[in-house]
Design brief:
The protein is α/β, with parallel strands linked by helices. It contains eight helices and four strands. It has one domain: Rossmann fold.
Length: 198
Amino acid sequence: MSEPFTVLHVCMGNICRSPMAERLLARAVQDRVGEAAGQLVRSVSAGTGGWHEGEEMNPPAARQVRARGGSVTGFEARKLRGDFIDEADLIFTATADQYDYVVALRPDAADRTFVMGEFGRLLASVDPESLPPGDGKPQSVHDRGVAIVEAVHRLRGPEGPLPGDDLDDPWGRGDQTFQRIGDEIEDTTVPFANLLLS
């Protein structure tokens, strides 16, 4: 059986931005395919720093996930390791600094690592007709996901991500900031899930 298409979300402490992205992508996938979601897409996260390891999601981040229909059950923060990068078909970082951190750890991951806002911005230019057809089976979803990543990578210019592509760090800020970050995450995760699973 084919492995699910694996998306790794990376931020700093793994209690705010990357867990929100992990669970909101999982919810976007579930919205499209229901119970089959876990067999098709694996959404995981980690932080560049290990100081929150084993902790739950930050409460305002968890509130955003729940408010958007996602689950916070079983989440535990963890520190990024090289093997997490190796296992991932696509890596989203919250900021350009974290992109640099991932690529320093695993230079061969550069072509499949993107600042989340950068990926979302470029995704709109991917021609769905250029992708392998999806039939809802794990192998074809995986192949389609790999093709989307390659297409977005080709669209990426030499200048790299733009300053506006970063997700602000909402830690210690109010629910309004977390809500804005949640919206920015969904601006990428929802179109990606729709294109991947259409």
